[in-house]
Amino acid sequence: MRANTIADVLSKIKKTESCWLWTGVTDHGYGRISMQRKTLAAHRIAFEHFKGPIPDGLFVLHKCDNPPCCNPDHLFLGTHKDNMADCVAKGRHWSANLATCKNGHPRTPENVVRWKYSNRSGSYCKICRRRVSAVSGQRRTAAIRLAAKPGYRARPFTHCIHGHEYTAENTYLNGGAKRCVTCRKTRDEVRYKASP
After folding, report:
1. How far apart are CA 139 and CA 146, in angstroms?
2. 11 lies in the same domain as 73
3. Full-model pTM
4. What are the residues facing 174 on neighbouring strands?
5. Each residue of 128-164: b (16+ CB within 10 Å) or e?
6. What ranges make up the beta strands (E) of the chain?
7. Are 148 and 70 in the same domain?
8. Dmax of the chain from CA atoms?
9. SS3 of residue 87 by DSSP
10. Which of helix, strand or coil describes residue 169?
11. I need a surface site. Which of 46, 50, 57, 79 has the fewest CB within 10 A?
12. SS3 62
C-alpha cells in the first residue's frame, strides 16, 4: 500500500466559490487522511502546505465555521483557549445556547455562579444550590431534634448484626470500623467449602 502524498490530499478537495470542501473520510465533520503512518486532519495538512509549519501547541481554526473546509484563506492559528472562545462566540458550544439549568431555572447572570479552582472551572445555578443546601439543613436539623428528645441516647455498638458480642477476643478493626471475628470465620468457612 503506497503512502498518501500532498497530491492525494489536494485531489480530495472540492473547490467551491468560498470553501474548499474535503470529500474523503471524515470524523465529526473534519477531514482525515493517513500520511506517514499517522491519521492527520486534512485542514491542518492544507494549512501547512499553503501557509507553512504549525508551531507546537497551536490549533488550526476555521473562520468559516465549516469543519470540512480546507481553504487556507479560511484557516488561522490559535490556542485551545482561542478555539473554545471562538466556539462559544459562534454558538456551537454545548452550553452557549442553554437558557435554563437542568431543573428549568433561568440561566441569567444573577442566577449563575461561575467558579474556578486550579485548572478546572464551571458554573452552577443558585436556586438549585439553595435547594440542595436546604435539604441538607433539614437532615441536620432532624438529627439534632432526634438527639434532643428526652431519653434518647446514641447506643454504643456492643454486638454485631448477628448478635455476637464485641469482646477483645471477638473484635478486629477494618478501616477504623469494628468487625466481628466469629462472623468472619463463619463467612470464610462457607466461602472455602463452596470452592472446589
Report:
1. 11
2. yes
3. 0.51
4. 177
5. eeeeeeeeeeeeeeeeeeeeeeeeeeeeeeeebeeee
6. 13-15, 20-22, 26-27, 30-35, 38-41, 59-62, 75-78, 112-117, 120-125, 171-174, 177-180
7. no
8. 88
9. helix
10. coil
11. 57
12. strand
Distance from C-alpha of 139 to C-alpha of 150, rounded to nearest angstrom: 20
pLDDT tens, the chain, 196 aa long: 455 778 888 889 999 988 999 998 888 889 998 887 888 899 999 999 999 999 999 999 999 989 999 999 999 999 999 988 888 788 777 666 678 887 888 888 888 888 777 777 778 888 888 877 777 777 777 766 766 667 666 666 788 878 888 898 999 888 777 889 999 998 888 877 766 5
- Range(s) of the domain holding residue 11: 6-97
Please name the helix (run of DSSP H) or strand (run of DSSP E) that holds residue 186, with its range, or none. Answer: helix 181-194
C-alpha cell at 97: 445556547
Q: Which residue has the cell 470542501?
A: 21
Same domain, 162 and 177: yes
Which amino acid type is present at position 63?
A: K
